[in-house]
Every structure is written in C-alpha cells, then in structure tokens.
Amino acid sequence: MEKENNKNKKIYILIALSLCTFVIMTIGTTFSFFTSTIRGNEDAGEVKLETADLLLVYNSKKDIVKEDALPGWEDEMIFEIRNTTDGENIAGSYSINWEIEKNEIKNNDLVYTIECVATKDGKEVPESKYNKVVNITNELNMPTTSSEIGDGIINSGDIQTCTVKVKFKETNSDQNDNQGKSFSGKIVVLGNKYSYEGE
User: Fold this and answer.
1) Cβ contact 59:181 at 8 Å
2) CA angle 136, 198, 85 (to 5 degrees)
3) What are the domain boundaries of the chain?
4) What single DSSP character describes residue 8?
C-alpha cells in the first residue's frame, strides 16, 4: 500500500513539474516575442503609441431623406467630428462616407458638396500635418451606392464642423424620368486604425 502511495506521489509531482515547466516556457516565449517586436532602433529612444478618440456629433439630423423629389429641391445637414483625446498633437485620421439607402434620381441630376472648417477654442485652425479637412466645393454627382467622400485628419482638442448640401439640379430640360423619385442617405465617419503623434 505504501509503495502505491509513493508511486502516486511521484506521478503527481511529475505532473505538477510538467505543468510548471509548460507555463514558464509559454510566458518566456510570449515575453521574448513582444520584446523583440518592440526593439529595433535603440537610437530612437522611447517608443510611445497613443491613439486618438474621435466623436461624431450630428447637429440637426443624421440623414437626408426626400420622397417625391422635384427639380430645385435642396437640403443640408451639419455634423461635427471631434478629437477628444487628452494631450497635444495626437491626431486621428478618418474617412467621411455616404451610406446610400436609396437613390432613384438618375442622370447625374442629384449632386452634393461638403465644406468643413476646423476650430480649436473657437478659433479657426489652418491645415497642417495634424489637421486636414474634407472640402468639395464643386458639385459632385451623388453616388447610387455607398462610397467614400474623402479622408481627413483631426488634431487633439479640435472640432471640424462640416456642412453637406444636396441638390436636385434644375437642368431646364426634360427631367420627367426623375420627378417624384426618392433619395435616402446618411453620412458615416469611420476612424482609421493609425494615428499621428506630435513632436
């Protein structure tokens, strides 16, 4: 009986040692992987990575919807992109996109523009590597499917206020095929995966 107890103890000890060895090897391998991926240029100094926190605020509405549209119809929406990140010069990149639910108006009769202005503490901010707004002042044809409008960059603490205008052009020609048609679309802002850090 005592031999069997000693044999069981040895088995338990071997299992415990095997598990400990496995855990230590796993931790060591993981640590060496992460330290080797961070190192590389010892002259560069400390590696610091911060990502920007972007917020989208619709001021009046989040979509533009028109049933039974007629030539001459216009609408607009205003929204803000805010970088709420603490710290200086932590810029985030983003893309502004149309999410088209329905666009029955064909022949390039439906057009849009977008104008954005960047401000910080109520003062306009000039373009820089930390600040790039999306501005399309020449009328573009409204896409029939969801698509990207443009890319921008916003610095920490900044607000970019954007105005999108949509217009059913009056062409002074036969537009009977488009009269009474419908449009429904909204603006979506997608934050990109990388950010810029200041100097």
Assistant:
1) no
2) 75
3) 2-44, 54-197
4) H
User: Per-residue confidence at 62, pLDDT binned at 50, 70, 90?
Assistant: confident
Which class for 179: exposed (0-12), middle (13-18), buried (19 or more C-beta within 10 A)? middle
CA atoms within 13 A on the CB side of 127: 6
What is each CA distance from 12 to 3, 6, 15, 26, 88, in whole angstroms?
Answer: 14, 10, 5, 21, 57
Which pLDDT value is given to residue 32? 38
Higher pLDDT, 184 or 12: 184
Contacts 24+ apart (CB under 8 A), 105-108: 105/69, 105/142, 105/168, 105/178, 105/181, 105/182, 105/183, 106/144, 106/177, 106/178, 106/181, 107/175, 107/177, 107/178, 108/141, 108/169
Neighbours of 150 (CB within 10 A): 15
CATH topology for 54-197? Immunoglobulin-like (2.60.40)
Q: Answer yes or no: is pLDDT of 195 > 50.
A: no
Residue 6 scores a pLDDT above 50: yes
pTM of the model: 0.70
